[in-house]
Amino acid sequence: MPRGSGRATLAPAGMQPPAQLGLCAACHGANGHARQPDIPDLAGQKADYLDKAMRDYASGVRNVPLMRGALGAIDPAQMRALADWYAAQPVCLPQVRRP
């Protein structure tokens, strides 16, 4: 699937999409494949890394006002659910075009 196609993947067995997925999916895609090249892909990242990154954005340790605002209303359990969701999504490598 090409980067940024916007197609959601099927939920991994036994996983329900997190309640707050839509908030992240607007930029990062429901399947973790960003819709724009300047936004990082989240699919396949380690859950612990994603969880800590979200906590750092929410607290201001990572000073990105857009992310701080987006994560401000999400509690730690919801952040963990989002981290687990994106970690379970398959990585999709970008297509390489030959000149």
UniProtKB/TrEMBL annotation:
<keyword id="KW-0249">Electron transport</keyword>
<dbReference type="Pfam" id="PF00034">
    <property type="entry name" value="Cytochrom_C"/>
</dbReference>
<keyword id="KW-0349">Heme</keyword>
<dbReference type="GO" id="GO:0046872">
    <property type="term" value="F:metal ion binding"/>
</dbReference>
<keyword id="KW-0479">Metal-binding</keyword>
<dbReference type="GO" id="GO:0009055">
    <property type="term" value="F:electron transfer activity"/>
</dbReference>
<keyword id="KW-0408">Iron</keyword>
<dbReference type="InterPro" id="IPR009056">
    <property type="entry name" value="Cyt_c-like_dom"/>
</dbReference>
<keyword id="KW-0813">Transport</keyword>
<protein>
    <recommendedName>
        <fullName>Cytochrome c domain-containing protein</fullName>
    </recommendedName>
</protein>
<dbReference type="InterPro" id="IPR036909">
    <property type="entry name" value="Cyt_c-like_dom_sf"/>
</dbReference>
<dbReference type="InterPro" id="IPR050597">
    <property type="entry name" value="Cytochrome_c_Oxidase_Subunit"/>
</dbReference>
<feature type="domain" description="Cytochrome c">
    <location>
        <begin position="1"/>
        <end position="90"/>
    </location>
</feature>
<dbReference type="GO" id="GO:0020037">
    <property type="term" value="F:heme binding"/>
</dbReference>
